[in-house]
């Protein structure tokens, strides 16, 4: 073992394993249900999309992505028919990103797939241990967002 290798994977490696595994399962299942035109990177928008609309700046903040990246993803998803930009009724200068009918169908399918993934993990670990894991993961994620 070299001085650069840790005995156990660090937080970044473990988080990446979880992310990539969940993304692979989610987007494979979505493709099987007819949503084969979206890529995992679109999750930065799709995971935070709301039925009543959300500003691109809020998507950037929630996902931790730059506004330019989110803008490009919104453009792609709009071309594919998953989202549309509509005027924000509270600010005429702003636009809200709304899911289209196809976007709503994708959101429902993704939610069902994620429930299945989470239920499988809760069963494997036990409901209490899985709940404690998620609570700890939320706390770590919140710590990482703090300045």
- Helical amount among residues, as a percent range? 55-70%
Sheet-strand content, in percent, reads: 5-15%
The total beta strand count reads 2
C-alpha geometry: globular
Note the main sheet: 2 strands, antiparallel
Oligomer: single chain
Q: What order do the strands of the largest sheet run in, or round the barrel if closed?
A: 1-2
Arithmetic mean of pLDDT: 93
The low-confidence parts are: none
Helix and strand pattern: HHHHEEHH
**How many angstroms separate the termini?**
35 Å
- Classification by helices and strands: mainly alpha
Tell me the Rg in angstroms. Answer: 18 Å
Count of helices? 6
Please, could you describe this protein's structure?
The chain has 147 residues and is mainly alpha-helical. It has helices at residues 11-32, 43-46, 56-63, 67-80, 101-125, 127-145; strands at residues 83-88, 91-99. A two-stranded antiparallel ribbon has the order 1-2. It is globular. The two termini are 35 Å apart. 14% of the residues are buried.
List the helices and strands and how they pair.
Blueprint: H1 11-32, H2 43-46, H3 56-63, H4 67-80, E1 83-88, E2 91-99, H5 101-125, H6 127-145
Antiparallel strand pairs: 1-2
Features:
single chain; 147 residues; mainly alpha; two-stranded antiparallel sheet; 2 strands; 10% strand
């Amino acid at each position: 073992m070299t001085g650069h290798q840790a005995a156990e994977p660090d937080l970044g490696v473990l988080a990446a394993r979880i992310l990539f595994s969940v993304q692979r399962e989610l987007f494979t299942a979505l493709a099987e249900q007819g949503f084969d035109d979206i890529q995992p990177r679109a999750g930065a928008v799709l995971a935070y999309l709301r039925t009543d609309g959300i500003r691109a700046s809020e998507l950037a903040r929630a996902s931790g992505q730059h506004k330019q990246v989110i803008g490009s993803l919104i453009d792609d998803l709009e071309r594919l028919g998953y989202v549309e930009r509509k005027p924000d009724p509270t600010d005429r200068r702003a636009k809200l990103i709304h899911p289209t009918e196809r976007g709503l169908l994708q959101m429902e399918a993704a939610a069902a797939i994620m429930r299945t993934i989470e239920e499988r993990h809760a069963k494997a670990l036990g409901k209490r241990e899985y709940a404690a894991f998620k609570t700890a993961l939320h706390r770590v994620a919140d710590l990482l967002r703090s300045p």
